[in-house]
């Protein structure tokens, strides 16, 4: 079975003023892109939890010898 004829590739040198105006109008309607949000802990959503665990481990390693001397 033969393939249907394909569309010839568009020549970028040929100007279609209607398509250009339509694209320009759509670009005007589209809001400008928002800048990416700057997060303190980065883009990882679990960064706060990881920081909390590390802080608790550091506190435990620091306080454990102090508690064992007192008891």
Give me a quick take on this structure.
With 71 residues, the chain is mainly alpha-helical.
Report what the structure shows:
- The chain starts with 16 loop residues before the first helix and ends with a helix.
- It contains two helices and no strands.
- It has helices at residues 17-29, 47-70.
Shape: elongated
Tally of alpha and pi helices: 2
Poorly predicted residue ranges: none
The average pLDDT score comes to 82
Biggest beta sheet summary: none
Alpha carbon gyration radius: 31 Å
DSSP helix fraction: 40-55%
The end-to-end span amounts to 89 Å
Fraction in beta strands: under 5%
Q: Which class do the helix and strand fractions yield?
A: mainly alpha
Total E-strand runs: 0
Secondary structure layout:
Blueprint: H1 17-29, H2 47-70
Features:
71 residues; mainly alpha; 2 helices; elongated
